[in-house]
Every structure is written in C-alpha cells, then in structure tokens.
Amino acid sequence: MWPKKIQQFILTQNQPKFRTNQAIAAFCKFGAKSFADVRVWPNALRETADKTITAMSFVKTQIFQSRDRSTYKATLQLIDGSMIETVLMSPKPGVYSVCISSQVGCAMNCAFCATGKMGLQRSLTAEEIIDQVLFWIQYNQEHHLFDRLHNIVYMGMGEPLANLTAVEESLRILIDSQAFNFSTRHISVSTSGLVLGIAHFAKHWPQINLAVSLHNAIEDERTELMPINKTYSLVKLQKALQNYFHYANRKVFIEYILLKDRNDTTRHAKALIDFIQKIDKPQLLHVNLIIYNETQAGFAGSSKETATVFMQKLKQAHISVTMRKNMGRDISGACGQLAGKNR
Predict the structure, then answer these.
(1) 219 in active site
(2) Catalytic pick from 28, 47, 85, 159?
(3) What is the pTM assigned to this prediction?
(4) Residue 194 sits in a domain of what CATH number?
(5) Which one from 28, 106, 110, 335 is the annotated catalytic residue?
(6) Radical SAM core domain: which residues (predicted)?
(7) I want to staple 64 with a disulfide (CB 3.0 to 4.6 A). Which of 16, 91, 167, 331 is the partner?
(8) Domain match, 68 and 45 both
C-alpha cells in the first residue's frame, strides 16, 4: 500500500481528495487487505481500484508460530519473487513489537548472521518496508493478538542505512498522522556501523531511536566478525556516536551478541567498557546483550552463566545494560536467523 499511488489513482478518477485519506485509514488503521475492504468508497470505485492498482507489494505468505506463542514469523514473497521475513514479538504480555527488513539479503556479510550469508540481492522499496507493518495489522484483524503495536524495529534482513532513501520514505509514512501515526520514540533503526549514515540520521531523524550493532570492541576481532569494520573502524564509530550526541540528546542502543569464547571474556568486557567510556555522554549508551541464536555459521552462544558474569562487569563499571530475551529461536525468527526461506 503506497499513499502516493492511491492519490494518483484518485486524481485519474476525478474523485475528491478526501477519498485518498479514507483509503489510507482503511489500510493503516483497520487492516484492509484490498480496495474491496475500503467500505466508505462507492462500489464502482472499489472495483476499479482493485483492477487498476496493486494494494499490497507481496503475493504469498507463510506464517510460523513459536511454541510459547510469543513470536510469529512471516515469510513474504514479493511481486518479483524475492523472499523476505518479518517478525512479530511479544516480550511481555500485551506488548507487541514488529521487526522489519530493509533489504533482500545483506551486503555486510557479518560472520555470525544468516542474512549475511545470502549476500545482497536488492534493497526494498519504501512500500515493501511499510507493507510488513501493514501485514501484521491485517493479521491482527483476524487473530486479535493486540490492541495496538507498541514498537517497530528496523532489525530484520539488511542494513537499513545502506537503503537510506527508502527507509526515510517509510519512516515518514509510519509517523504520518494520516497514515500509521506511530510515535518516533517507538521506532528504532539499527546499523552495523555505517558512519556516514549515522551522521545523516543524527541531523534528520534525531527523535528516532538508533541502535548500533557492535558485537566486539577489539579492532581486529571486530573486523573478523564484521567486515564493515575495515571501512568504519571502532575509532571512526566512536567519533560518529560523539557527533550524534551533538544533535540528539537521546539514548543509543549498543547491540552485543554474546558468542562463546569469541567476545564474551573478561578481556572483551573491559574493551567494551573502554569503548563506551571514551565517548562523551556515556550515560546515553545502553548495551543490549543477546546470547547468540545459532545458525549454520559455526558459532555457539555463550552460557547463561558467562553472560551473567559479562553483564555484571558492565554494571560494576556503571554501564547501562540489559540482557535481552531470546525469542523465536524454534522458528528461526530470532536475531541473526532471518534468511528469507520457506521452511
């Protein structure tokens, strides 16, 4: 569903402008699946719209539900046959977050990530990005899981800041009061550390939450895990975050996947503490620790005991830190597991 496409259609049909907002509301607020569901439109207009323009950017879906029913994953087949995945999560009763993809595959090639093994096939359009949110609104109309969505996180397949134009377009629609009307404070965009993208984001989207995937604070070891570190080193990333705080006095989330014996030792904890404390306003950096969700990449996740010790070392250094709950592992819907495949 793309508002501009609906607006153009309304113009060609010589209809009043308010018809556009009626359709947008039907999709974004009430989960319409097609123009036939836009009940406030005349029958003839609905029929013409369904024949003239495509309502949704995907043509086929497959849904997976975790055993504990806290997580749902949808594999969506786009019109060109590309496959993407999006996840609906409920970390606590009554609270639902949607994780959306920004690309088909990913060029970052992080060693531990299933999406990175796909390589980059193409970037998504803004419509394909927002349609993932719309899909879960439609799904909820049938299954009545939530009263409203609480959070949207750009942490699915792809590197959002490598598809900045489409991501920005999608953000404008998500926060538009005439469309989804989401609060900026409930939207998060993640990056593997694209410094130029962070600088742009700081200037133009200071109210959107920023998350940085770090995963190792030792230069050569991070390069092994995340090849992007060759271009944007830890020193450059520190400067980018320092610059970010000149524009946005908001908390930045540091994502840190715990890999057994690879980044979970005392030495690694000290390096992470040092990385954070060298940045002005370290109190605005919050670390999210995630025990690795295993893929076919050959890594293992840290034990709960090791993870707890690692977290305590950060707390002792007065670093704000949370241990994130692993969700959706049994449906390959957890962090790092999305690979755009039917199973």
Answers:
(1) no
(2) 85
(3) 0.93
(4) 3.20.20.70
(5) 335
(6) 92-330
(7) 331
(8) no
